[in-house]
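ok so for the tutorial part 2 we go from a plain amino acid sequence to predicted structure tokens. step 1 is just haveing the sequence, like this:
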Amino acid sequence: MTKKHKKRKFKKQTSGSVGNVDQGKKSHVQSRLNQEHEKRIVEKVWELAGTICEAEQMELVYVQYQREPGGRILRVYIDKPGGVGLNDCVYISRQLNDVLDIYLNNENPYNLEVSSPGTDRPLGRLQDFERFKGNMVKIKSARAIDGQKNFKGILLGVLDKNIKLQAPDNKIVEIPFADIVKARLVDFSGETSCS
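step 2 — the prediction. this is what the tokens look like for a chain of 195 residues:
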């Protein structure tokens, strides 16, 4: 009984390895470009929605643009003294939709959602961290601080563009504002007025 051997063709591994490295670099570069593009869209929506909200005596709380299983979502959170209702969200949504049709007409399809910030109110501007000091907050950082990226504690305010937080173990943590990926109040029940 004779064994048949298949002929194998060998390619230089160096060319394949370089190709894989190049592919990895392309993927990383494309991801970076997508993030920058999404950031520009969010900045433009902040500008457009902010103008509309200001005209209607509402506050633009946060803008979020991300890919989800159902496609791209553009979320806009609004608020006003006494809270917003469904009619407020519909009203702002219709106005914003008309404006976005003009300014974002060349973008990939997305769904626009306009809603109240809810009890887990997102924080996105530096002044938000000063405004809501004394409240419980969750913060996710892009870079690890003392070996961790996720923090929960009492918001102490802002110092030199660093967000100060008192952790449950009473340790004070300072997180650079530029490194914050996501920040939310926890079980926020609304602002109380001092009268």
